[in-house]
Specification:
Elements: H1 2-16, H2 21-40, E1 43-53, E2 58-67, H3 70-76, E3 81-86, E4 89-96, H4 101-106, E5 107-112, E6 115-120, E7 128-134, H5 142-150, E8 152-153, H6 157-168, H7 172-175
Parallel strand pairs: 1-4
Antiparallel strand pairs: 1-2, 3-4, 5-6, 5-8, 6-7
Amino acid sequence: MKKHLFLIALSVIIVFGGVTISDFVQADNKKGEDEESIKREPLKMEVTLQKQYMDGRVEEETHTETVWAMEDFWAYYDAWQLVNQEQGKIVFKKQISDISPYLKENGYFGLKNDILTIFEGRPEEQQVIQSFYQIDTSDLESYQAKQLKSGIKIDSKDVYEYVLEAFREMTPSRSVSS
């Protein structure tokens, strides 16, 4: 009996209160639609990609990315290392096993004060990018001395590695015989 009275009272409140059962159903459906539209909104993310080349140069690129699914986003950047993450911003870094495009375009090996050096442009322009180690110039063949004076163009990773290794044999500590 109490249960029956409760249902009657609830019906009276709902009907005379201006609220119907269908209002509850519609409100519940609308709530579900609102939640779905929120879920469908993509996330805008400022993504910074840092490429670190073996010659030490870091190139950075920033763009805005629309993220629809975080799983896809993380999978796409799987080969990158996460450096920093803030609200709406993320920074990734990747080690590149090559020399930078900048060095390929502008780099020359040469000597400055008998130190193997990379120059921006030919060595006579004296714009040093990076210095390595001292070379015992008395150990150089005449063609090697000429090459280093005029500059050895660094147009590939292979040239970069070859020159560093070839002239490493001519450092004063290695050239002294026992």
